[in-house]
Amino acid sequence: MKDVVIATGYLGRMIEQYFGDGSGFGMKIEYARSDRPMGHAGQLKSAERLLPETFLCLYGDAILDFNLKKLLDFHDKKSAFITMALMRYETRMKYGVISTNQEGRVTKWKEKPVITSDINVGCYAMEKKFLGYIPRGQVYGMKEAFKSAMKDDKAVYALRVKGEFTDIGDIAAHKEADRTYIERYGTIP
User: Fold this and answer.
1) Would residue 122 be called left, alpha or beta, if left means φ above 0 and alpha means ψ between -120 and 50 degrees?
2) Dihedral sign, CA of 7, 12, 13, 14?
3) Nearest-angstrom CA–CA distance, 150 and 144
4) pLDDT at 1
5) φ, ψ for residue 105 (rounded to 5)?
6) What domains are there in the chain, each with its CATH number?
7) What is the pTM of this model?
8) What is the DSSP code string of 44-89?
């Protein structure tokens, strides 16, 4: 990836100061600025004029490590409108899970079961026309934009990818990721 667009909002100037025009990282970076929170889709809409016809969209609150080329190849092969990257996620419930029938009689008790599911990791291959489902200048969520495209029977696909997903969307998760990456790679000079 040589051309990158970063949609910034809160603390965007700090991001721009660090990355600059991208030349120090061997790439070209442009910025789409917003002076207020817009939601994931609303923020993406602010970058519309800078995006090519097919592009990758990655949320800034996750660290991802998987083969992006596989996602793009799948997207192209399916002639998809949008392709969402999924990863397998497993968690153990802290509590016993109880099932009942309509009368309230207990029919099943699972003590602290493991739940496994595919999760959205905030990485998409997209066609620029998808941005037509996002209103300009409004706070708008990606889920709402996806639902509108799916209602219009657009080709929305998902691909389960193998790799790593680290959520850094809150302070505790960010600190944990920081510790993990310092242990793995050392401190950044």
Assistant:
1) left
2) negative
3) 10
4) 59
5) -75, 135
6) 34-85+121-185 (3.90.550.10)
7) 0.85
8) HHTTGGG--SEEEEE-TTEEEES-HHHHHHHHHHTT-SEEEEEEEE
